[in-house]
């Protein structure tokens, strides 16, 4: 794509700064624009936003258009009007981008998780590097103009990679059981009989279980009536061991027809090695509840990453892309450059995947996680892999790290892999107080990464940012940041 071609780094940022000033001028004039929902007008797409939508300008007002690509010319239809911007949908494309491709999934423009399936893969990778640059420009951490933003590391085959399907379950107006994802900005369920980004086995199990729920006339949760039992189905597959775990997330501990259901799963889905139930009662935006129960098979499944084996309980976090997870963690290990005898803290540790990969070099690895089952898994994974110098505790990094420091433990290195909300302010303060010589930030959200770097660059220099495509066909981007302490 024209705006993704390599540019002189400083000239690139100068152009982006000029564009930022232009955006500000446009914002000052938006109040004079009179636009109505349903109105149509021609629009040229100037760039793509961080969520993968096309952005153009109508009478100096920003217009966000999902599904539109840079340099395309389209007739768009306004879907919502805000004070400083408009949202619209493509009515007709007049000039098509050479990077546009036909999506494999017919519903790609209806649900989240397929925002870029209409964009060819090399352009997706360039876009994700640009997303990091956009975030840095917005927050402007110290020295951001000169950061080394490395080309995004992608996949050879960017489909069939997701190891977990987490689908809502509902009955449609005809009484048929459906499983899928909500349409964008709604709670209208889109049934997904196929899904090209999922590992095939996850969809095989998902559709078979939906048929069982239909045959057994299982009580399916009804959002409007706030009644029924089965809310969500979760299928997770282990790429390297062929284990598959099935979890029923339910509105109550009761699971009618449980015996018949488990018999059919055992007979018809021998690949399912673990069946669990998670109870999440009532109306809530959270998918998972706190109570998880064992129904059949093993209580966990086993996955391999590199030379290590990991046990996965139902709620334990693991990256959705097994192949790229190894790439991501290899980059984190390379960036940390741990030397023999050094100590390391694995913050937001999950099941210990990053920390345990460092244990063969480190003198000691300590980690923390807020989900008790994940901590149990992490310590069990250490034992199963014969690792005796790694230990994990339940709690937040911002609570446990100061406690460890007070007890005399000062890590040489810290690796953080926070949720999309980024680092807790107290943890940032603690890192800046401890000042470990090495710090690696593994980010799943460039915006919160850039925001956190504003504080971290007071004491640390950003050596480089390596973006990694963990979720092809989406706008999501992961990045590994190598930071070194200023002297």
What form results from the Cα inertia axes?
globular
Main pleated-sheet profile: 8 strands, mixed
- The CATH level-2 architecture of the largest domain is identified as 3-Layer(aba) Sandwich
Total of DSSP H or I helical runs spanning 4+ residues: 10
Q: Briefly note the CATH topology name of the largest domain.
A: Rossmann fold
CATH superfamily of the largest domain: Vaccinia Virus protein VP39
Q: Estimate the helix proportion, in percent.
A: 25-40%
- The gyration radius over C-alpha positions equals 24 Å
> Structural class of the helices, strands and pairings?
alpha/beta
Organism: Levilactobacillus brevis (Lactobacillus brevis)
Keywords: Methyltransferase, S-adenosyl-L-methionine, Transferase
Pfam family, one: tRNA_U5-meth_tr
GO molecular function: rRNA (uridine-C5-)-methyltransferase activity
Q: Can you describe what's shown?
A:
The chain has 487 residues and is an alpha/beta fold. It has 3 domains: 39-95, Beta Barrel (OB fold (Dihydrolipoamide Acetyltransferase, E2P)), CATH 2.40.50; 128-157 and 309-485, Vaccinia Virus protein VP39 (Rossmann fold), CATH 3.40.50.150; 164-302, OB fold (Dihydrolipoamide Acetyltransferase, E2P), CATH 2.40.50.1070. Helices cover 27% and strands 29% of the residues. Strands 7-22-23-21-20-17-18-19 form an 8-stranded mixed sheet, with helices on both faces. A hairpin with a 5-residue loop joins strand 2 (47-48) and strand 3. Helix 3 (200-215) packs antiparallel against helix 4. The relative contact order is 0.10.
